[in-house]
Amino acid sequence: MKNGKRPTKRQKIAIAAAKLNPDNWLVTKSMPEKLSLVHRNSGKQRSILV
Asked: Which residues, at least 6 apart from 15, have a Cβ–Cβ distance to it below 8 Å?
């Protein structure tokens, strides 16, 4: 599993729009149309559209 990075303000807004708590998610891959996230505690992976 890749190490996640802290989300930027724009990414936090996109994560919150997907009804997720931005404090609990790290960004592993950032593409113009999609964000790949990993949960800080459980390691669960998720992708959201931006």
From this structure: 7, 21, 22, 25, 35, 37, 48
Place of tokens 């992976």: 45
Q: Percent of the chain scored above 90 by pLDDT?
A: 92
DSSP 8-state class, residue 4: P
Q: Each residue of 12-39: b (16+ CB within 10 Å) or e?
A: bebbeeeebebeebbbbebeeeebbbbe
Predicted TM-score of the model (pTM): 0.90
Paired with 45 in beta bridges are: 38
